[in-house]
Amino acid sequence: MADQIEIIENQWIPLSDGRRLAARLWMPKGDGPFPSILEYLPYRKRDGTAPRDETTHPVFARAGYVCVRVDISGTGDSDGVFDDEYSEQELSDGEDVLAWIADQGWSDGNVGIIGISWGGFNGLQLASRQPEALKAVISVASTVDRYADDIHFMGGCLLSDNINWSSQMFAYQTRPLDPLLRPDWREEWIERLDKSPFLAADWLAHPTRDAFWKHGSVCEDWSAIKIPVLGMTGWADAYVNAPTALVANLNSASKAMIGPWEHRYAHISKLAPADFHSEVIGWFDRWLKGELNGAEDLPDYRAFMQEHFPPTEHNSPRQGRWIAEQNWPSPNISVRNMYLDTGALVEEPQAGQVTVSTLAHIGQASGYFCPGMRNDNELAGDQQEDDALSVCFDTAPLQDPLELLGRAVFEFSFTVDRPVAQLVVRLCDVAPDGQSFRISYRPLNLSAHESFETPEALVPGKTYTAQIELNECAHHLRVGQRLRLALSSSYWPLVWPAPKQAAITLDLAKTTLKLPVRQVATEITPANPGPVQEFPQLETQELRAPTSTSERFIREDGVVVRETRDDFGKTRDPHHGLAVGSDVSLQVSIHPDDPATACFWEKWNFTFERGDWQVEIDTENAMTCDAANFYLHRKVCATEGANKTEILSRDWSKTIPRGLL
């Protein structure tokens, strides 16, 4: 099959200011011109995404597409200095890349963008800029609102992944250029080491939904996207809200699909691999080649309806079935109101009050924010321990099945004893044996209950009303199961806690849980992706096997600690001989009685070798806090050669006022 395509290992794409972007091309053999598929990322085509690229672009090239994998400016082997995610430089360069592709002799002028996470984000953002050549997008695990549904903030609360993702990007950005492609690699590498932006501090400096986050949030103007978009994600992923939002708000022929996957393309999922390639080829065949294959007639929303299975943090198969809604929003969804009583979810409003004031370490079973980015130990586990520390309300064992599809809404009236406080809402499916499976969750910074743009300090004792729209879900509760609403005032380590423990008192008579209940007389054919098909893989030489460990313990001073280590192994690429190894160690800790003791620490190590050329980079990031400030620290040490001659060692520290976080 390899003789059906030609691979150009490195193609320089010139930009108007003299910079060049590095690209890898997979080209069909035969008479062109051909449509093209662009994937535009900062993760290094040469080694970072090479194993994944091998599983996708050769397949698409054999289907008649020129695939163009481009490193963003300042990343991989591309020229320039990286400034930030989804920056004006990135998007403007992306428009130039699209125009360059359309202008090539092998191009018929029709280009599609595909991407997961970063590439899913910038695909939507580039579509909103309406470049002439871009005709369709497949956006996987992305967001339409960078403040509400990204890796930085959720519900106005700071996510600990703001520092975690910054730590990972800092490690990524310190990697060297390849000397085989860049004779000037050393000079450029040192500049990148020295000028890498302090992303955690930059992002934390924007704690509200200001212009910084509105840039790149396509929900600011839905009408700007005029081309078809296929939005995809998985229920184990962090990014579950974009696909249905796209379908509900775009006027183009757009569709949504949410499967049982984690933060990976579906065909390489460790949970439930599926035929991703056919979905991609079918979508682009319709909108880039003009084939009348019925893509526009697919149901608006195809989803994997999950059911309870033993919850575990380890990668494990999902249980459920595929469903479809021809139209979204769907007439098959109705709102069922449920109300809170002492420990119970009931059908009628009840008088009384309940106070939520939980320990700071609750959330130990919350899982990694974005499962699929480490080796294992990432998923939300059995919620029983967290439930026991929460304020919970259960239905009676169900006499009839209950099917939820959409976003539940928690409306409540409350008073609070602190100017800053959080309320975290979880929905769980509880089995007769007590196992608790998290269906959905969402936190809210109560000081932002009226506005994420202009939050205000809460007045202790004053009565407020608010609502929390939980994340999207598709879940079938079987007869005999119970639906549980669990409330807490913290959710560590997923959410960075408020500065002090708070007591939130709810007025039960004015508190309602609104459930999106699905009832369908006749199911339509879901057109699910089907089983995974055979695909090519990069046959690297394994020099060190990957491993994953996770441990939780309590120190003598009562601090709860979680330590994980993911060794991604070490492999040699057979095409260019580069051997790359990497590993990451993470520690998060907090004292149950003091949220201001929250602490994050992460260390990355990368090694690069080819013949006598050797480079090693160690990076560390840490974040602590008190009631007034956040304290961020990072450092890098880079060495060269077998004797590990130090090239650069540098530390940075920043203090960011907490404000109302």
What report would you give on this structure?
The protein is an alpha+beta fold and 661 residues long. The protein folds into 3 domains: 2-156 and 208-297, Rossmann fold, CATH 3.40.50.1820; 333-518, Galactose-binding domain-like (Jelly Rolls, Sandwich), CATH 2.60.120; 541-657.
Quick structural overview:
This protein has 661 residues and is α+β, with helices and mostly antiparallel strands. The chain contains ten helices and 33 strands. A hairpin with a 2-residue loop joins strand 29 and strand 30 (594-610).
Q: How many DSSP helices?
A: 10
Rg, Å, rounded: 25 Å
Structural class: alpha+beta
Sketch the major β-sheet: 12 strands, mixed
CATH class assignment of the largest domain: Alpha Beta
Overall domain count: 3
CATH topology name of the largest domain: Rossmann fold
Task: Note poorly predicted spans.
Answer: none
- What do we call the CATH homologous superfamily of the largest domain? Alpha/Beta hydrolase fold, catalytic domain
For the record, give the distance between the C-alpha atoms at the N and C termini, rounded to a whole number: 55 Å
Pfam families: Peptidase_S15, PepX_C
Organism: Aliisedimentitalea scapharcae
Domain Xaa-Pro dipeptidyl-peptidase C-terminal: 281-533
Keywords: Hydrolase
Describe the SSE topology.
Blueprint: E1 5-14, E2 20-28, E3 34-41, H1 50-62, E4 66-71, H2 88-103, E5 107-116, H3 118-128, E6 134-140, E7 153-154, E8 157-158, H4 161-173, H5 185-195, H6 199-204, H7 211-214, E9 229-234, H8 242-249, E10 255-259, H9 276-287, E11 301-307, E12 320-325, E13 333-341, E14 344-346, E15 353-356, H10 384-389, E16 391-394, E17 402-406, E18 409-416, E19 422-430, E20 436-445, E21 464-469, E22 473-477, E23 482-488, E24 504-507, E25 512-518, E26 541-544, E27 547-554, E28 560-572, E29 579-591, E30 594-610, E31 613-625, E32 629-640, E33 645-657
Parallel strand pairs: 3-4, 3-5, 5-6, 6-9, 9-10, 10-11, 11-22
Antiparallel strand pairs: 1-2, 2-4, 7-8, 11-12, 13-14, 13-25, 15-24, 16-23, 17-22, 18-21, 18-24, 18-25, 19-20, 19-23, 26-28, 27-28, 28-29, 29-30, 30-31, 31-32, 32-33
